[in-house]
Amino acid sequence: MANRPNQTQSGTNIQQVRQQNAQSASGQGQFGTEFASETDVQEVRQRNAQSEANKAQNSGQFGGQNS
User: Fold this and answer.
1) Which of 19, 29, 30, 51 is the one with CA 20 to 30 A from 3?
2) How far apart (Å, rounded) are the C-alpha atoms in residues 52 and 48?
3) Model confidence over 6-59: pLDDT tens digits?
4) How far is the C-alpha of 45 from the C-alpha of 51, rounded, in Å?
């Protein structure tokens, strides 16, 4: 196999991967901030608690029927 600069043995272009990683890293903060500002943490916690309560209630109702 010929030695090709800037490519791995499988043919991956190393420079292209580095460029994509840099673009991804630079946009990551903006992406995270956008969703963080739109999320109501208290509402999410409340919904999670309600979901857990429903699961506990349902497992109690259906758990005894299979016995």
Assistant:
1) 19
2) 6
3) 788 888 888 888 888 887 766 655 555 555 567 788 899 999 999 998 888 887
4) 10
Question: Length of the chain, please?
Answer: 67
- How many whole angstroms separate alpha carbon 57 and alpha carbon 50? 10
Does the pLDDT of residue 3 top 70, yes or no? no
CA distance 22 to 26: 6
Q: Which distant-in-sequence residues (6+ apart) come within 8 Å of 8 by Cβ?
A: 14
Please provide residue 12's backbone torsions phi and psi, each rounded to the nearest 5 degrees: -70, 135
Q: DSSP letters along 39-61, please?
A: --HHHHHHHHHHHHHHHHHHHHH
Q: What angle (nearest 5°) sits at the alpha carbon of residue 42, between those of residues 41 and 43?
A: 90
